[in-house]
Specification:
Blueprint: H1 9-20, H2 45-52, H3 60-68, H4 77-82, H5 87-90, H6 95-101, H7 106-121
Length: about 120
């Protein structure tokens, strides 16, 4: 019959839902101990990645993060990312490129270029 439990699709659905609603075993984990200071051998991976890599080798994500760190320029970070501006492209942008093609205000364009040059000199 069409209503037998083996052929009725609702019976299979109910059986699978019953299986999902079974309580899951609770795992007991030890809390992470953050009280000890950092050892000399530990490395800050986040800052190491950006600081050590030359600007012209940055990807679009790193450029977006860099633009977000510039005061009053956070609003442009997604524009740089959406336009696929990587480090090599950022390295050659001019005020005209920033203002005309990316819509950056002139004062902010100079801030971006100033910070770019500071970053290059490191």
């Amino acid at each position: 019959s069409i209503f037998s439990p083996m052929t009725n699709p609702y019976s299979r659905l109910m059986a699978s839902m019953a299986g999902m609603s079974k309580p899951k075993p609770v795992f007991s984990f030890q809390p992470l101990d953050l009280s000890s200071g950092a050892s000399e051998q530990e490395v800050d991976v986040v800052s190491l990645e950006e600081d050590e890599q030359p600007l012209d080798q940055w990807n679009c994500h790193q450029v977006r993060d860099f633009i977000e760190t510039i005061d009053n320029c956070e609003e442009y970070a997604d524009i740089f990312f959406n336009e696929k501006i990587d480090g090599a492209t950022l390295a050659v942008l001019s005020v005209t490129h920033l203002t005309t093609f990316l819509g950056v205000k002139m004062g902010h364009a100079f801030d971006i270029l100033r910070r770019r040059e500071e970053r290059r000199r490191r």
